Amino acid sequence: MMMLNCLAIKNKMSRHVPERSCIVCSSKRDKRYLQRMVRLPEGGVVADVAGGMPGRGAYLCGSEDCWDLAVSGDRVARALRLNRNTRLAEQIRAARDVFCL
Ligand SMILES: [Zn+2]
Prior knowledge:
Blueprint: H1 2-14, E1 19-21, E2 28-30, E3 35-39, E4 45-48, E5 57-60, H2 64-70, H3 74-80, H4 86-99
Antiparallel strand pairs: 1-2, 3-4, 3-5
Bound molecules: zinc ion (ZN).
Zinc ion binds next to loops.
């Protein structure tokens, strides 16, 4: 019975905290602690530092390893349904610089 109560309370609380998954390692966290890139209407991505930009977003947990994999473009392209190309890779690298100064 105690167990059930705890779960109920946990569910109630987590409703107020939107969670997202890192597109590389899939770890879930409160989206405020993730780094977001957003797809631009003309294609490509840009760092969404404030987290409020409209559009489809891809989240990264912020670990070095995840960024290292993300800059290849594969994961981001898949998450945002973009074509993987040199320009996309450059934009992801630029986003990384914004977040990882
Ligand atoms: Zn990650």
